[in-house]
Amino acid sequence: MEWLVSLLGAALIMVALRDLFHTLWHPTRHGGLSRLVMAALWKLAGRLRARRRVVGLVGPLAMVTVVGMWAVTIILGWAIVYWPHMPEAFAFAPGSGLSQEPELLDSIYLSLVMVATLGLGDIVPAEGWLRVASPLEALIGFVLLTATVSWVLEIFPTLTRRRVLAIRLALLHRTDPSVRQLDCAVGASLLGSLATEVVRVRIDFTQYAEGYYFHDGEDHSSLAATIGYATHLAQLGQAARRVDVRLTAALLAGALEDLATILDQRFLHTDGEPAEVFAAYAADHGRAPTGA
């Protein structure tokens, strides 16, 4: 029975580590617990009356919630591993009084100390397998801290790339180039660079899906509001006479199609055409799509 309880704790630890792995290093379209938490917070914010003020907090708050969920699951999992073997399999420092506390409380305390890599030494494993398991928890705690810092440092550059593309599209919309103006070498270069940026954003949504739940600020920096105009530019380019302009316009249209597919598969589930997906994307972010 003791080993069944410990195995339950090990299962909790594996659930947390699997979710961490798939969120940070091997994202899948099916997501995991972290994506469910983020999606739930996003939907909840969308139903609040003060959506504009609340939605900007969803992304950072969701990341904090997910990291807290990982930490609590790992701590509780290791505490459950230790619990059936407490206090017989452990040595307590003289005068600490820890052995007089409830066994579950001692187990949670030891788990907290180990995952934080404090190494206080007031509770020490006495059995051989625990002497191996306890340092392993400290190693997992270090991995969790490193992964959290890396996650924060990696997500914000993806938001910057998305906002740069959005502002660029907003400026182009303000200029409103015609087919004639795009029908030149500069137009081909412009459409090609836009296609490259769209591909980068598509990869960001694949690798860092949590970026979807970050608010982009004003309309001119919101990709949800401006991405529809990129479709209009691709259509203008495909009507040009120059072959290189038509080619880069086709590349831009293909990149937009791929982006719409990722958005629809992972977040929106409209099963519609790219224009419908981009309209749903704008609506989900509380934006009015930029017209042609």
Structure description:
With 292 residues, this protein is mostly helical. It has 2 domains: 2-147, no CATH class; 155-284. 72% of the residues lie in helices and 2% in strands. The chain is built from 10 helices and 2 strands; from the N terminus they run H-H-H-E-H-E-H-H-H-H-H-H. It has helices at 2-24, 33-47, 51-82, 103-115, 128-175, 179-182, 185-207, 223-238, 243-268, 274-284; strands spanning 90-92, 123-125. A two-stranded antiparallel ribbon has the order 1-2. Helix 2 packs antiparallel against helix 3. It is elongated. The chain starts with a helix and ends in an 8-residue tail after the last helix. The chain crosses the membrane at residues 57-84, 136-153. Keywords: Membrane, Transmembrane, Transmembrane helix. It comes from Nonomuraea cavernae. This is Potassium channel domain-containing protein.
The mean pLDDT is 89
Number of domain units: 2
Order of SSEs:
HHHEHEHHHHHH
Distance between the termini: 68 Å
Unreliable residue runs: none
Biggest sheet descriptor: 2 strands, antiparallel
**Reading side by side through the largest sheet, how are the strands ordered?**
1-2
Q: Could you say which overall geometry the principal axes of the C-alpha atoms support?
A: elongated
**Percent of residues in helices:** over 70%
Class computed from helices, strands and strand pairing: mainly alpha
- Count every helix, treating DSSP H or I runs of 4 or more residues as helices: 10
